[in-house]
Amino acid sequence: MATYELPDLPYDYDALEPSIDARIMELHHDKHHQGYVDGANAALDKLETMRENDEWGDVKGVERNLAFNLSGHVNHSVFWENMSPDGGGEPGGELADALDEHFGGFDQFKSHFSEAAKGVEGSGWGLLLYDHAAGKPIVSMAENHQNQSPQGATPLLVLDVWEHAYYLQYENNRGEYVDNFWDVVNWDDVAERYDRASTWTLSGTE
């Protein structure tokens, strides 16, 4: 039985239009995300065979494939939930307070996140993470799915800026895609992730 499985989208393919069109959502979820799930499961199978036979061959390459595909699976699983046809606006509650405290306000956070996402070299992600070492949210970015992002952090809000996420609709205009993403952000989901993440430090519960 596969360890990792493709989650269902929490809305129809066309639910996020006009920000993200239906064909992109169909291909992105059914093909690209499924590919990462399949790749992660295949890597686990290879590692199990290596252990059983005590033959390690290209263990470095298999571990690298696991990191890439599993990170792709995790990021996409958060990404779908981070969006909603009823999204947009601004967060409230403790999440809003945290953005005020650590970024100087929502507008400053939004600008920081947007510029990080637009500035990813090649393929990757813009990320709002909860840094458990510092006990606060931070903005980061990832190249591919896993490179250049810090350890010990929980994803709260993620934005896929691989070309497959936007090119059919926006062509090479990543900036417009990033700007329109804010119209579908599901702040309730982000706030729930923040509430859960903020109860943990690297040494356990606060």
By CATH, the superfamily of the largest domain comes out as Iron/manganese superoxide dismutase, C-terminal domain
Number of strands: 5
What is the helix tally?
A: 7
Overall pLDDT metric: 96
Q: Regions with pLDDT < 50 over 5+ consecutive residues?
A: none
The string of secondary-structure elements, in order, is HHHHEEEHHHEE
Counting helices, strands and paired strands, the structural category is alpha+beta
Broad CATH class of the largest domain: Alpha Beta
Report the end-to-end length measured between terminal Cα atoms: 36 Å
Which second-level CATH architecture of the largest domain applies? 3-Layer(bab) Sandwich
Number of domains: 2
What is the CA-based Rg, rounded? Answer: 18 Å
Kindly identify the CATH topology of the largest domain: minor pseudopilin epsh fold
General description of the model:
This protein is of the alpha+beta class. The protein folds into two domains: 22-81, Orthogonal Bundle (Helix Hairpins), CATH 1.10.287; 93-205, Iron/manganese superoxide dismutase, C-terminal domain (minor pseudopilin epsh fold, 3-Layer(bab) Sandwich). Helix content is 50%, strand content 14%. The protein has helices at residues 22-53, 59-81, 93-103, 106-118, 167-170, 174-181, 187-197, and strands at residues 124-131, 136-143, 153-160, 200-201, 204-205. The strands form two sheets. A three-stranded antiparallel β-sheet has the order 2-1-3. A two-stranded antiparallel sheet has the order 4-5. The chain is globular, with a radius of gyration of 18 Å. 28% of the residues are buried. The model has no long low-confidence stretch (mean pLDDT 96).
